[in-house]
């Protein structure tokens, strides 16, 4: 099991995506089940990899892979419950992108599977709460990003007067927008709570991390998220502008995750 590498699940997810495209062109039950099989194989391989390597969330490699793992579960569950929708064509590219970013950053030279206390860099219960609150907030924002992409694609299809049954199979604009709204409404409190816990930990540990790149980027992300919610509910911003702002906030999230923590061995 220790021989499982990133290439194993990256290739499985890529095969699943290719089969999803093929199923879009020529829908067949066999292709659908093959896509699920490759997606499941990728998830199993990635689960074993994470269990053995235990990459910490204090650096980019661990964040990207854990986030991709949760979204891979999201893909499989969604594909089973919404098999008539073009679900995988939106979720799998994001999973592949996150895994690819994780592979690009690579591991820190001093990382080892035996350092289980470093899984979240702060070996305390509150440190774990801090990390997982931020992780769940990132998942929520990823879901909002996916819903925004679906909204833009579906709006374009309606403007182009695409015939029913042709092209991508998606929900109505109203349902996609509701999915976006629920995702960002749930993600913002999680992000806020995670940052507050991190703030308390910084005071307790007497850390001089106020100029840490990821800390500063997290503050910018929170402000952008707050503006998004304010416009969404204060000014009833909807439709395309709301989708574009959600995508912009997601881009800030990726930028935040790509930054290293000073004092944590850098990005590698």
In short:
The protein has helices at residues 6-25, 29-53, 60-81, 88-105, 125-159, 173-204, 213-234, 239-258. The protein contains 8 helices and no strands.
Name the features.
about 270 residues; mainly alpha; 2 domains; 8 helices; about 0% strand; disordered C terminus
Describe the structure.
The structure is a single chain. With 268 residues, the protein is mainly α. 72% of the residues lie in helices and 0% in strands. The chain has 2 domains: 1-106; 121-268, no CATH class. It is built from 8 helices and no strands. The two termini are 24 Å apart. Helix 3 (60-81) packs antiparallel against helix 4.
Order of SSEs: HHHHHHHH
Global geometry? flat
Q: Give the number of domains.
A: 2
Percent of residues in beta strands? under 5%
Rg result: 19 Å
Measured between the Cα atoms of the first and last residue, the distance is 24 Å
* Low-pLDDT ranges: 111-123, 264-268
Element layout with pairings:
Elements: H1 6-25, H2 29-53, H3 60-81, H4 88-105, H5 125-159, H6 173-204, H7 213-234, H8 239-258
Helix pairs in contact: 1-2, 1-4, 2-3, 3-4, 3-5, 5-6, 5-8, 6-7, 7-8
